[in-house]
């Protein structure tokens, strides 16, 4: 079994530098980092009194919420598709 090629990329998120290592493309990692940065800045703009740790947690909560909603929608669409096939 061959090892997957790992990508190492340095990104800036909310004023901090992070090194991300993974198997995704550099463009994918940059996109993810950019979206996280944008979401953190949006939350900070609405709640300027929050520290960066709280902003990060709220960003994570919002992201997981979005993920679960999309997952629910995919499951609904899969059920509809199965009914149509049935």
TrEMBL record:
GO biological process: one example: cell division
Domain of life according to the entry: Bacteria
Matches recorded under Gene3D superfamilies: 6.10.250.790
Subunit structure: Homodimer. Interacts with FtsZ.
PANTHER family referenced in this protein's UniProt entry, alphabetically: CELL DIVISION PROTEIN ZAPA
Function: Activator of cell division through the inhibition of FtsZ GTPase activity, therefore promoting FtsZ assembly into bundles of protofilaments necessary for the formation of the division Z ring. It is recruited early at mid-cell but it is not essential for cell division.
Protein name (database record): Cell division protein ZapA
């Amino acid at each position: 079994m061959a090892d997957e090629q790992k990508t190492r990329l340095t990104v800036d998120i909310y004023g901090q530098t992070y090194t991300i290592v993974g198997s995704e493309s550099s463009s994918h990692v940059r996109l993810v980092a950019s979206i996280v940065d944008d979401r953190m800045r949006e939350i900070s703009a609405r709640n300027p009194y929050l520290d960066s740790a709280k902003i990060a947690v709220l960003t994570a909560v919002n992201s997981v919420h979005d993920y679960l909603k999309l997952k629910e929608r995919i499951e609904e669409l899969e059920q509809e598709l199965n009914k149509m096939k049935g």
